Amino acid sequence: EMVRALTVFGRDDAPHGHAEVALENVELDESALVLGEGRGFEIAQARLGPGRIHHCMRAVGMAARCYDLMLERSLTRRTFGKLLWEHGMAQLAIAESKSDLECARLLTLNCAADIDERGARGARDSIASIKVTVPELTGRVADRAVQVFGGAGVSDDFPLARILAGLRTLRIADGPDDVHRRTVAAVEAKKAVKRLGLTFERSRL
Fold first, then answer.
1. Percentage of the residues of the chain whose pLDDT score is greater than 70
2. Distance CA 18, CA 34 (A)
3. Contacts 24+ apart (CB under 8 A), 83-87
4. Contact residues for 111 (Cβ-Cβ < 8 A; gap 6+)
5. Can you list the residues of the chain whose pLDDT is less than 70?
């Protein structure tokens, strides 16, 4: 039973968002078991790994849209007798956003190549890394676009506010940033232990 549709940053996220549901008097037998007992986490990870790169691909696309709108606004809007792009603030926003967008795009492409080569399990460090870094990079692009647009940027006249909320939410969806940072750190530590010929208790890595 659906109890209620949930909002994101005060916005109605239906029909693509999430809802609070109540499961009452649900009975399952052995025929409902998927893959095998105790293998639920394995099932989840098989889907979440490739799914995370899809999130990042969409994030790059949304940030590119924000960047294009930022450029258009900067080249058509005037303040203090000059086009926006002629002001230092807008120039900085454009330059830094271009770099962030390219970094996000290349990290995502590199991760996709890594998955092709090593599979989702073998590339879990790359997947975890982009799940943290790409939303941060693309979120900065969206935030700068909002700033360039001023009050219009937080209105519903443009998609910037919704994109910014979506990119911020992405830092929680499919696991918060801190969990993915822990994965990256653990994988890197294991690589270093092997390279340096060190030995540690398995539980410590």
1. 93
2. 23
3. 84/148
4. 53, 56, 123, 126, 127, 129, 130
5. 45-48, 200-205
